[in-house]
Amino acid sequence: MVIKNILVLTGTVFIVLTLMINEGYAFNPADLQTLKNTNICVDCDLSGADLTGVDLQTANLSGANLSGANLSGANLSNAWLIDANLSKAKITKAIFDGATLDGAVWTDGKKCVDGSMGECNK
Questions:
Q1: Whose CB among 38, 42, 91, 97 lies 3.0–4.6 Å from 77's, allowing a Cys bridge?
Q2: Average pLDDT for consecutive 10-residue bins of the chain (122 residues)?
Q3: Per-residue pLDDT at 89
Q4: Under the phi-then-psi rule, with left for phi > 0, alpha for psi from -120 to 50, and beta for the rest, what region is 109?
Q5: What Å distances lie between residue 111 and 29, 44, 96, CA to CA?
């Protein structure tokens, strides 16, 4: 009985620690569908979404939560990312030419200043 209690306690501690370490990004599937249908997703939750290689030219993602999203190879040319959260997003080979990044939180957690166009000025 004592061994069983120890195993249960150990398992519980392991699960709790795993959940604390895992950042738990979970996008809203309805928001992703809205983006695909309209190229607009204002104030939506796309955290952790796989947007690898997606064409998001001129998309309005103002206020969107893109934290932890995979935007590798995505084309965000002329996209609106005002006040968007890109913290910990993967942006390898993503294209931001002409994208408006005023007030966005960049991948490193720092805020882009107003006038950030095509790149995050901090």
A1: 97
A2: 51 40 71 95 96 98 97 98 98 98 98 97 94
A3: 97
A4: left
A5: 27, 19, 16
- CATH number of the 26-122 domain: 2.160.20
User: What pTM was estimated for this model as a whole?
Assistant: 0.79
Contact 116, 101 (CB under 8 A): yes
Cα 93–chain centre separation: 16
Q: Residue 26: what pLDDT?
A: 81
Structure tokens, 104:
């966005």
Residue with tokens 């249908």: 37
| Domain coordinates in residue numbering, the chain | 26-122
What is residue 65's three-state secondary structure? Answer: strand
Give 15's contacts (C-beta < 8 A, 6+ positions apart). none
